[in-house]
Write a structure and sequence with these properties.
748 residues; alpha+beta; eight-stranded antiparallel β-sheet; 17 helices; 36% helix; globular
Length: 748
């Protein structure tokens, strides 16, 4: 029966191919229904081969518009010297071909599923023929298995066969794969906690790490500030089943092409990638790229520039856990909190097969950010495709779908296009993974401030180095926070539940800070254009209403970025040192601060969450508490802090709910200035600023420094903003920058 079925499928495929060729090659454009076989004698059909130029023009229009109207077909026939019927039948046959390709792909997935179940069935039968005793490990005698157990096994096998048949029939009617394993074995994936399978990590004292690591401070429950749902771009009316099928086929074709390009870019070295001797980074050879790959999402828009980067690193996470993280939008945002402002999965085209992510394809929306008001948030809608290439080797690729969406009625303006980008993950024997990350994007350069153009052009702003550095730091943090051998000498006054609450509060503080710097759509910001505000300071306002994590009223956010002739490491060490805080922070009351609690989040002492206490101005005044989170990696560093209520923090440190602690964060973001930045040249050594000079016209290295404050200017949400409030915040941010420059003896 199987041979007859395969023969029928083969004959049907050959008939489909013959119909497709005849439809494409028929010079007269007539179909079989248009010919009257009864009245006219049979005559030999005339065939006409399309020229490469005609095929290229037809394919180009088909990618943007699979269903051209009569006017479009008429214009195309005139331009290509074809008959209107020929154009019409060509598009019909092309849509049929794409539908056939999709059906073949589904058949291939079902065949693989069938082979896997057959192999599992054979292994179960072999195990039943040769049972093993669980006590001694030797062969079990028949009497060891009760009659009731044998009946249960037979019934289980019968139910499994019935489930497979039902899934197969359902898949035929629904037009998509229905996996029995995915519905019966795979556990539901959590929405907010990220579980990472971690093995031996080579940290010495951290060699015994738990096998499941939840991401983020909230190790027991979901996040309170869940990401808002973004409505899908697909219109809900006027979409037929055939249009949906054609769109799915186009998405699949695009995803396969993007996956092929990503793997080649990750594995190929010279001449595709050229090693930069100065910075040690890989630089893409554009000429070799154009010779090797065919653009899969159309030509680059006018005014856009290209950025490309590649980075390889070892992370403390296995491939399966990392793939699950990347394919879940909530866990992806939690892994990269300062890079992803907002994200959601708008449509799941295929969830994978066999209970795994192999073959998973989904539509996603994301807002990517660099922590500076001078860099606009990048809004991208893209396909994310996951594929297992070998045992322990996975790849996840992203590619924009803006060219496909142009005819769907969705907004077509974008400030960024994501060319095939993503990572190839390979398991290592010690439980870690080797990650090769490739970032390839096109963006509107005119929207970026001159100060940050060299950084973005070098691929360091949104590039692969930042993704890998953030991933390494987050995985190291999770390994340390969940290690049973972690030292508690720095936080003996905090219980385990108190540590979780404090870390959760710090995570919310950092997320709120990032949202205020970049003006993402998480909050509704109103930008102010006040003549009394410095031109490089961006001031925005929003209303805080019914949010227990923030004080109610009018919130004012001010942010600016400057270039400083000081190294990022020295600037970071200065800002996080509580003993030097009085040199720039007005909250210190002119004296040093004392660290009351310290929770390490990395091997570096600067990667931590701490609770600081400021000196009281007089004996009758209670001291102020400041919650602070700091971290540094190869891509940059962050210092975020917020004053907190003393009684509320005592509740948090005892394990209480941190969602009701009101705070408004301020802080600093530091990134190394990119090659070719605005740094001056110097012929002499510069002393006291942590950067090296040199002879000749060597450029002085420095830092791109972002300062941001969020302040409650009025406790009534309905109140109007005053000019005095805006001027006060503007003066505060400029004064803070001047104090930091004076303390470090650096220039801008």
């Amino acid at each position: 029966m199987g041979e007859n079925f395969e023969g029928c499928v083969g004959r049907r495929s050959r008939e489909d191919e013959h119909e497709s060729r005849s439809g494409n090659d028929n010079m007269d454009g007539a179909s079989g229904d248009d010919q009257d076989a009864a009245n006219n004698p049979p005559r030999k059909k005339r065939y006409h081969r399309y020229t490469p130029q005609q095929i290229q023009e037809l394919e180009s229009l088909f990618k943007g518009c699979p269903h051209p109207d009569e006017k479009q077909r008429l214009e195309l026939s005139k331009r290509l010297c074809l008959q209107t019927k020929q154009v019409k039948f060509w598009f019909q046959n092309r849509r049929t071909q794409m539908k056939t390709q999709l059906e073949r792909h589904d058949n291939s997935l079902l065949r693989q599923e069938n082979d896997k179940l057959r192999a599992e069935n054979m292994s179960i039968r072999d195990a039943m023929r040769n049972p093993i005793c669980t006590n001694c490990g030797g062969p079990a005698i028949i009497g060891d298995i009760s009659l009731e157990e044998q009946h249960r096994r037979i019934e289980n096998a019968r139910l499994k066969d019935e489930l497979d048949r039902v899934c197969a029939f359902a898949g035929k009617f629904l037009g998509r794969l229905i996996s029995a394993l995915a519905t019966s074995i795979a556990p539901p994936m959590p929405n907010s906690s990220l579980e990472l399978g971690v093995g031996s990590n080579g940290f010495g004292a951290l060699s015994t790490v738990a096998t499941t690591l939840p991401l983020g401070p909230d190790f027991e429950g979901g996040m309170t500030n869940a990401l808002p749902v973004v409505p899908p771009n697909r219109p809900t009316t006027g979409v037929t089943g055939l249009d949906r099928s054609v769109e799915r086929s186009m998405f699949l074709e695009l995803a396969l092409a993007a996956m092929d390009e990503l793997v080649k870019m990750a594995q190929t070295d010279e001449p595709l990638w050229i090693r930069n001797l100065e910075g040690g980074r890989d630089i893409l050879n554009p000429d070799e790229y154009l010779r090797t790959f065919t653009p899969c999402i159309g030509m680059k828009p006018s005014g856009f520039v290209t950025e490309t980067s590649r980075e390889t690193g070892v992370v403390i996470i296995n491939s399966l856990a990392l793939v699950e993280t990347l394919m879940d939008s909530n866990r992806w945002a939690e892994m990269f909190p300062c890079m992803i402002a907002r994200t959601t999965t708008t449509d799941v085209i295929c969830s994978g097969m066999g209970g795994t992510r192999n073959g998973a394809l989904q539509l996603m929306y994301a807002e990517l950010q660099v922590l500076s008001p001078f860099v606009p948030v990048r809004v991208v809608s893209f396909l994310r495709f996951c594929k297992q290439h070998a045992e322990g080797v996975w790849a996840v690729v992203d590619v924009s779908i803006d060219t496909i969406r142009e005819t769907s009625g969705a907004p077509t303006f974008v400030n960024c296009r994501r060319l095939p980008s993503g990572c190839v993950v390979q398991d290592m024997p010690n439980g870690c993974s080797k990650v090769t990350w490739v970032e390839h994007a096109e963006y509107d350069k005119s929207q970026v401030h001159q100060l940050y153009r060299p950084l973005l052009g070098s691929g360091m702003g949104f590039g692969a180095q930042r993704w890998v550095a953030t991933l390494q730091r987050q995985c190291e943090c999770l390994a340390i926070l969940t290690s049973s051998t972690i030292s508690t000498k720095d936080n003996t006054a905090i219980t385990a539940s108190g540590r979780r609450s404090m870390l959760k509060l710090a995570q919310r503080m950092t997320d709120t800070f990032c949202a205020g710097v970049c003006a993402s759509t998480i909050h509704k910001w109103n930008k102010l254009n006040d003549g009394n505000v410095d031109g490089d300071v961006r001031v925005m306002t929003r209303k805080s209403v019914d949010n227990p994590g923030e004080p109610p009223g009018i919130v004012l956010s001010a942010a600016t970025s400057v270039w400083l002739t000081v190294s990022p490491q020295r600037l970071f060490d200065f800002l996080r040192d509580e003993r030097l805080r009085s040199e720039w922070d007005i909250l210190s009351n002119g004296g040093p601060m004392q660290e009351m609690a310290h929770i390490a989040k990395g091997q570096d002492h600067g990667n931590c969450v701490s609770l600081l206490r400021a000196s009281a101005m007089n004996a009758n005044q209670s001291s102020m508490l400041i919650l602070q989170e700091t971290f540094m990696d190869a891509a940059g560093s962050l210092v975020v802090y917020a004053p907190v209520d003393n009684p509320a923090m005592h509740v948090v440190m005892n394990g209480g709910d941190s969602a009701f602690v009101a705070l408004l964060p301020s802080g600093f973001s530091i990134v190394p200035d990119g090659p070719g930045s605005r740094g001056p040249t110097s012929n002499e050594h510069i002393n006291g600023n942590g950067v090296g000079g040199g002879g000749g016209s060597q450029r002085v290295g420095g830092s791109l420094f972002t300062v941001a404050f969020q302040i409650l200017v009025n406790s009534l949400p309905t109140a109007k903003l005053t000019v005095e409030s805006v001027e006060t915040v503007n003066n505060l941010i400029l004064c803070t920058v001047q104090k930091i420059k004076a303390a470090l003896k650096c220039e801008s």
